[in-house]
Amino acid sequence: RIRTGGGMQGILYASPISTCSRRVMCVLQEVGADWALKPIDLGKGQQKSAEMLAIQPYGKVPAWHGADGFMLFESRAIMQYAAQGSDLVPVSNTERAIMDQWISVEYSYFAPDFLQIYYMKVLKKVSLDEMKIQAHRTALEKTLDLLEGRLTSSGLPYLACAAFTLADLTYMCYFAQFGACELLDTLDDRPALAAWWARCAGRPSWEYIMANRMCEERIAKE
Ligand SMILES: N[C@@H](CCC(=O)N[C@@H](CS)C(=O)NCC(=O)O)C(=O)O
């Protein structure tokens, strides 16, 4: 099988500092896509403009508009679309199934608990309630234990297989906020997960999308 990927060309409507946007920007960098950024200022409500609603009916970021006219919203769908045929998706059926399992865990269990903490501690769009934070933290720790257990029992550096895949990538935008969410101590007694996160965060794709120069270089010309 020939591994392709990277042939994508288009514009990503995104907020460079939003978690879901970072998921997609990281994939686009990983596969070497030819992409431009249309920055959407969430604080100014630009995600609710008529132009945005035409491409993302919920008025959220990110959304993809390909040079071929293909449009797509939902960060995980864009992530999967961009990664097709690339090294981010294992060729083996079982490895791919394990990748899908951890992506589903992220979406179904990890993100719902993590985001409640993030909304309270960082975005402040939900009023701070320490009891609720504790409950979400306890629930989140179950998933952190499962991730730690997976890495430890497999002896692998990444979640699905020996290579970095979407299973790892999909969590990165949230782990990057662990400091701001006062969750970094959860890694103290989970050494395999801490090492995994250091490995992921050191990827050139991630360092690039987190760097200030990224916006200047990627901004779409009007
Ligand atoms: N499930 C969606 C979530 C999109 C989402 O909630 N985006 C946030 C930024 S991470 C947003 O646009 N918030 C602004 C708003 O809701 O008005 C995805 O994965 O794309």
Automatic annotation (TrEMBL):
GO BP of this protein: glutathione metabolic process
Q: Which InterPro entries match?
A: Glutathione-S-Trfase_C-like, Glutathione-S-Trfase_C_sf, Glutathione_S-Trfase, Glutathione_S-Trfase_N, Thioredoxin-like_sf
Q: Which residues form the signal peptide?
A: none
Q: Does the keyword Transferase apply?
A: yes
In terms of Pfam families, this protein maps to: GST_C_2 (PF13410), GST_N (PF02798)
Q: Does the keyword Transferase apply?
A: yes
Q: Which residues form the GST N-terminal domain?
A: 8-90
Question: Got a GO cellular component term for this one?
Answer: cytoplasm
Q: Name one GO molecular function term.
A: glutathione transferase activity
Q: List the EC numbers from the record.
A: 2.5.1.18
Q: Which residues form the GST C-terminal domain?
A: 92-222
Q: What class of enzyme is it?
A: transferase
Keyword annotations for this protein, in alphabetical order, are: Transferase
Q: Which PANTHER family match?
A: GLUTATHIONE S-TRANSFERASE RHO (PTHR43900)
Descriptive protein name: glutathione transferase
In its UniProt entry, the species of origin is given as Coccolithus braarudii
